[in-house]
Amino acid sequence: MVLDIKICGLKTPEAVAAALDGGATHIGFIFFPKSPRHLAPAQAAHLRDAARGRAKVVAVTVDADDAALDEIVARLYPDMLQLHGHETPERVSFVKKRYGLPVMKAFAVREASDLAAIAPYKGIADRFLFDAKPPKGAELPGGNGVAFDWTLLDTLDADVDYMLSGGLNAGNIAEALQKTRAPGIDVSSGVERAPGEKDVHLIEEFFQAIARADKKSSADHA
């Protein structure tokens, strides 16, 4: 199985290049004014050209209205939309039909019951993203650098396609992959020197840690 790797919250050509050169299958641009990773659609459109033919471009929004999504789609031409707010199954279905794009729906996880919330979205969302619930008082639904109990994912049906997010970094990605066997991973704050400021060296270290984990896994199963 090929691991999908998404580097999210990119804002500079250097960070985009580091993600692509490292082997990212997905790169994410965030459109949420409260986030330090927020970009205007025109800024993201300038950055996305480097990814053509190399990685899928994901537009991340939080309870965005039709007007905002119209502008993002028209300027960015994303390959996928990620809905990171309180979007209902009906809203996800509407967005898919309106733009003809696959949708990844994000869920905040702290306990097993949080995973049960995906049930009405099955067959509607193309993929799920599981992130840790934000700390009390946090304004951002994701990118807070906290992880959740990965063993909770043991209860998922085998056919659930998802990306693991929340607190991932070069130091814990091997453990995360070993414990979850996640088909995809998403990192943002774990490769930053400060909120919203990606560090090229941390991105490189993240990919190196994945490569080491993959090599060890292959040796263990040889």
Automatic annotation (TrEMBL):
Residues 5-209 form the N-(5'phosphoribosyl) anthranilate isomerase (PRAI) domain. One of its GO terms (biological process) is L-tryptophan biosynthetic process. Its EC number is 5.3.1.24. InterPro entries: Aldolase_TIM (IPR013785), PRAI_dom (IPR001240), RibuloseP-bd_barrel (IPR011060), TrpF_fam (IPR044643). Pathway: Amino-acid biosynthesis; L-tryptophan biosynthesis; L-tryptophan from chorismate: step 3/5. SUPFAM superfamilies: Ribulose-phoshate binding barrel (SSF51366). Keywords: Amino-acid biosynthesis, Aromatic amino acid biosynthesis, Isomerase, Tryptophan biosynthesis. One of its GO terms (molecular function) is phosphoribosylanthranilate isomerase activity. It catalyses: N-(5-phospho-beta-D-ribosyl)anthranilate = 1-(2-carboxyphenylamino)-1-deoxy-D-ribulose 5-phosphate. The keyword Isomerase applies. HAMAP family: PRAI. Belongs to the TrpF family. This is N-(5'-phosphoribosyl)anthranilate isomerase. The gene is trpF.
